[in-house]
Every structure is written in C-alpha cells, then in structure tokens.
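Operator note (shift B, R.M.): manual run for Aspartyl/glutamyl-tRNA(Asn/Gln) amidotransferase subunit B requested after the automated queue skipped it. Running by hand, logging everything below so the morning shift can see what happened. Input copied straight from the record, untouched. If output looks odd, do not overwrite the archive copy; leave it for review.
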Amino acid sequence: MSEYRIHGATGEWEVVIGLEVHAQVTSQAKLFSSAATAFGAEPNTQVSLVDAAMPGMLPVPNRECIRQAVRTGMAIDAQINKWSRFDRKNYFYADLPQGYQISQLYHPLVGEGHLDIAPDDKDPENTKRIGVERIHVEQDAGKLMHDQHPTMSYVDLNRSGVALMEIVSKPDMRSPAEAGAYVRKLRSILRYVGSCDGNMEEGSMRADVNVSVRKAGEEFGTRTETKNVNSVRFVMQVIEYEANRQIDVLESGGKVDQETRLFDPDTGTTRTMRSKEDAHDYRYFPDPDLLPLELDDAFLHDCRESLPELPDAKRHRYENELGLTAYNANQLTADVDVYNRFEDVLAATADKTGKPEKDVATQVANWVLSVAPGVKNATEGAVEANDTTAANAGILALAAANVVSGGQAKEIYEIVLKTGREPDEIAETEGLKQNSDTGAIEAVIDEVLAANEDKVAEYRGGKDKLFGFFVGQTMKAMKGKGNPAVVNDVLKAKLG
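Run finished. Output pasted below as returned.
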C-alpha cells in the first residue's frame, strides 16, 4: 500500500484524518418520542410535544433505536457498554427547541471497535485496520431554511429528535482514498445490519471530516472539522483541499486555527463557519430527565443473534465456497442490493440448469456485475418491472447450455427489458440461437479453408496464431450463430 504524501515547498507532508459519521437510526419513531421519521414529509408535520420542548414533556428512550445502535457496535467488533448514560450538550440554535442536545459524552453506549478497509477495491486483500473510538446515540436538531422568504428564516422541526448514531473513528486514516474506503465500508455494514439506510443524499448519513497535516513522524498538527459532508466523493475532496490549504498556511509562516468549516461542493473549497468548541464550552452534565441505560444479557444475546452474515464473512465465503475471484467477491458484497440480486439470480440459475451453485457462480457474477448493467444502461425504454430474477436466470440457463452465445444473451436481455417476453420464446422466434449442427459447421469451415489455402499452409507451417483468423471467418460466415466450442473443435480436426 503506497503512502500518500503531499509535496510542499519545504518537503513532504502527511495527512491525518479522523471521521465522525452521523447515521440516522432506522426506526419508525424518534429517539425520545413516537413522532414519525419519514423522509420528505411536509414541514413541521412530524413533531411531538417532546420534540418541540413543550413545558413538562419528558423524554422516553426508544428501545428500537438503542437495539440498532448495539447491533451496529457488534458488527464492528466493538465493546458494548452494559451501562451508559445520556448527557445534555448545551448550546442555542433556532432549530434546537430545548436549547440543548441530548447526547452521550462520558459514558457512550458503544466503546472501541474497528473496520478493516481496502483503499484499492481492485486489491481487496490489501487491507488496513481503522480504529473506531466510540458510537454514541444522540438526537438530531431541526432544520433552518433561509431561502424561502426575503426577510425571514423558516424552521422545520421534522428532524428534531431523530435518533442518530455518531460513529467516531480514531485518526488512523492517511489519505483521501482511505477515508473514502472507510465511509463506503461503514455504509455497507450499516445497510447489511439494517440500522441505517445509508442514503447520504437524503442526509441520513453524513460525515464531519477532521483533517490535520504534519511532517512524517512528528506530533499531530492542529485539526479543522468540516461539517455535514454528504457524499464519499465530497469527503475525499474536503481532505484534498483542506490538507493543501493547511500546508500553504504553515509554509507561509502562519498557523492553522482549530475551527469548524463548511464545504462548498460547487467550488470544491471549504470556508470558516465558527471557531471550534471544546467539550467544556458545551457545559455537559448528566440529563436529569433520563435514567442510565442498563442492558441485560438477554437483550445483548438477542441483538447478536439478529445480525446477518456481514460483508467480510460473505466475501470470504464467495471466494472459498463458490470459487469467485477476490475482486468479484468484493464487488458483489460491497452493497446489500447487489448481493441480494446476485444470490437470487444464482439460486434461480442453479435451479433452472440443475447444476450446483458453484458451477454457475462465476457466470452469474459476471452477468450481475458487468453484462446486465451494461445492457440495461444502454437500453432506451427499459422497464424495471421486466428485470425479474426468473428472466435473468432463464437467459443464463440458455447460455450455460450453449443454446445462445454471449452476444445473443445480451440481445435477448434487451428485448426482455423492453417487452417482458420470455427468454426461451425470444430465442426461438427471433432466431437468437447458436448453431451446434456439426455437419453445417463442417460445411462452412470447408468453404473457409478452401478460400484461404495460403493461410492454411502458413498455419500448418507453424503460424499458430492464424487459428483465430479461421475462427473469425467461420463465425462471420455463420453470422455469429455458430457454437464457438463446436467451431473450435471442428477447425482443430480439419487443420490437423
């Protein structure tokens, strides 16, 4: 794994990166109330009296939110604290009705864990371990909208009180690529576990990006925190820009201020938001309205038993049991939707062909990862409902039986996407079947060899590479419908 360095005027600089990822907990209700959490609702329609901080309203922890945070901690091999406590973080914003946020500073629900990342997805075996310092549960604030009226700002409290997991990494990342891999891996695990949908574009997962620079081997430098970055690409851009900005400041004789910054995706730059607060500025103290959380062994056992097979375990199983390459296994297991599609199509194809899953796994993997997406993207008028597991398996079964070629499989798939017709019927009526008739293929090959006697002589004289020429001429004469395996066998016999 090559080291990432930035070459400044005074030498090489190393970047030190830590991420605080806020992940919205998958739950039908908020952290301390029964108000709904659906995305896109009309402003201020999902607000309970608790969320609006009406006098006398008391928060009650949502068991499901706690369960999901514990399951997430278990998925990253983290310490689960059987005793934890909520604290008040005091600050005023117009979108924070209480004037404080209920969070966990001193006694978080989840302690230290780790993620193993592969910065280069083409080399999934080359991994680096990134430490996770803690996961604590906290409530979100509301939302301010400054562009709805010329003189007033609007407040939407729909997000007020929504449950968040703040997943705090250690400063173990040293390049934009490592940070990008970390966010992708974390998002994948959250989606596997089902504790967060990972929709960064909807704000249900976002990152605060902490960046500092130093000469290699020196003490950590002063860091800045860029808030609420909502895509992997933007996280990497923030690091690139902020590291270079800090180096310019230091090399010109200045000092980096510890501050909170905002990212402008239009320009790819960051700007100052406010000076960075420390914990004492928030005047944390134990929340007087909430008892400590105490988890019993039965609850923890149920959480662990509910975990699915996780990405790394699934990847190794695909390699060891299905014989897939490390690259394909990594690509298939990186996202929940992709592996679900693969496993559905694999099971249906094995059933349709009567072969063990291992025997068709590579064919299905290539189809799911490359062939099908390529055809789909190029097909105008494709209907998503036509892209069924049964249709995909039907096409793959035809290819596995050498009834259709790879090119014909693509043509059939395109017609399926547009019309929803059955693959077998399309192959039959549209003439999209390979010709495996040995006699017919022999007749075509005889004509090809007779028309190219000079090249036959050259081949027999030692020019083995001409074999591909004869295959090409035969397939061309058969308009691509000759079974390649039969063509190869007959040619080899004829050429001697």
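Quick read of the result: The chain has a mean pLDDT of 94. The first strand starts at residue 6 and ends at 8.
Leaving this for review. - R.M.
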